[in-house]
Design a protein that fits this description.
By secondary structure, the protein is mostly beta strands. It has a domain of 95 residues. 4% of the residues lie in helices and 14% in strands. The strands form four sheets. Strands 1-9-2 form a three-stranded antiparallel β-sheet, with no helix packed on it.
Length: 196
């Protein structure tokens, strides 16, 4: 069966038959393969003076050249894509994490402290303005209990700080489609194709 020179075929075995070469990007000489170079040029690499490269389909999927509707243009010989992808913060949707206002209630117990502790009387049974003659009852102004009445402090403010962070293992994301590896080979001999 005759094939066109430069044809690429998938083969079920792991070697290139006679007159074919594996599509593994190997460098070949122009002088020995001038007809094939006339078809491939340097689409797949090479210096174009003495060498050119065969296509490298190792671990790659072929894609049709040109531009499909709504798709990016792909010139012949272009390589691209990645097998694994690191997702960056620039790739994830923007998010806003709301925070609620924080109210802090502080209770301080104040002790009844005399203004002059050196000369002040003891709090037990101390009265103000008691009459020597035993007049009307006097009011006790000191207490033995210290700090029994909570006093709320108004007008205070508090703030909290911290860092919100994402968790993860920093493991690249596999983006390969399901696949089956086969042998891609290119014809080094065959009919030189004419343009349509």
């Amino acid at each position: 069966m005759d094939v066109y020179l430069g044809s690429i075929q998938m083969l079920g075995f792991n070697f290139a038959p006679n007159g074919w070469a594996l599509c593994n990007g190997q460098v070949i000489g122009i002088a020995q393969n001038s007809a094939l170079f006339a078809l491939l040029g340097t689409y797949y690499g090479g210096n174009g003076q003495t060498t050119f490269n065969l296509p490298n389909l190792q671990s790659r999927l072929p894609m049709g050249m040109g531009q499909g509707p709504g798709l990016s243009p792909r010139p012949i010989g272009e390589i691209g894509g990645v097998e694994r992808l690191n997702v960056l913060t620039s790739n994830v949707p923007a998010q806003a994490i709301p925070t609620n206002s924080l109210t802090v209630t502080t209770t301080v117990n104040l002790a009844n402290v005399p203004s002059n502790p050196l000369t002040a009387p003891t709090p037990t049974n101390s009265y103000i303005g008691a009459s020597i003659s035993g007049g009307p009852p006097s009011a006790a102004i000191f207490s033995d209990q210290q700090g029994a009445s909570p006093v709320p402090l108004k007008g205070t403010s508090s703030s909290i700080g911290g860092t919100l962070s994402t968790v993860g293992g920093n493991v690249p994301l596999e983006v390969s489609n399901p696949f089956l590896a086969v042998n891609f080979s290119i014809a080094l001999q065959g009919i030189f194709p004419s343009r349509n």
